[in-house]
C-alpha cells in the first residue's frame, strides 16, 4: 500500500494529442460501473488485476489439455484488449508489447 505522504492530491489523464481513445474508455467504464470517471478508472484498474489472476488460474488447471489452454489463451487475448496471453510451458499473461 502506498504511504499517504506519497499520494498526490490529483492525477491527470491526458486525452488529447492522439490519446482521445482514453476518454472513450473512461466514459465506457463510467457507464459500466455507474460511477463518476475517477471512481470508474479506479474500479477498472482493480478489476484488471483480478481478471488477469483469473485467467492465470484457469489456464494453470491440470485438467486442461495444451490445446484447450491455447484455445482459451487465444480467446482471452482477443477479448482482453491490451493483454497478451500465451501458453508455452507455463502461462504468461502480460500487457501487449
Question: Can you give a write-up of this model?
Answer:
This protein has 97 residues and is mainly alpha-helical. The protein has one domain. Helices cover 53% and strands 10% of the residues. A two-stranded antiparallel sheet has the order 1-2. Strand 1 and strand 2 form a beta hairpin. The mean pLDDT is 86.
Quick overview:
With about 100 residues, this protein is mainly alpha-helical. The chain contains three helices and two strands.
- Radius of gyration, in angstroms, nearest whole number: 17 Å
How would you state the average pLDDT, rounded?
A: 86
Q: Which runs of at least 5 residues are low in confidence (pLDDT < 50)?
A: none
What structural class do the secondary elements suggest? mainly alpha
Indicate the overall shape.
Answer: elongated
Side-by-side strand order of the widest sheet = 1-2
Q: Using DSSP, what is the number of strands?
A: 2
Strand content: 5-15%
Largest sheet: 2 strands, antiparallel
From N to C, what is the helix and strand string?
HHHEE
First-to-last CA distance? 27 Å
Topology:
Blueprint: H1 20-33, H2 37-59, H3 66-79, E1 83-87, E2 91-95
Helix pairs in contact: 1-2
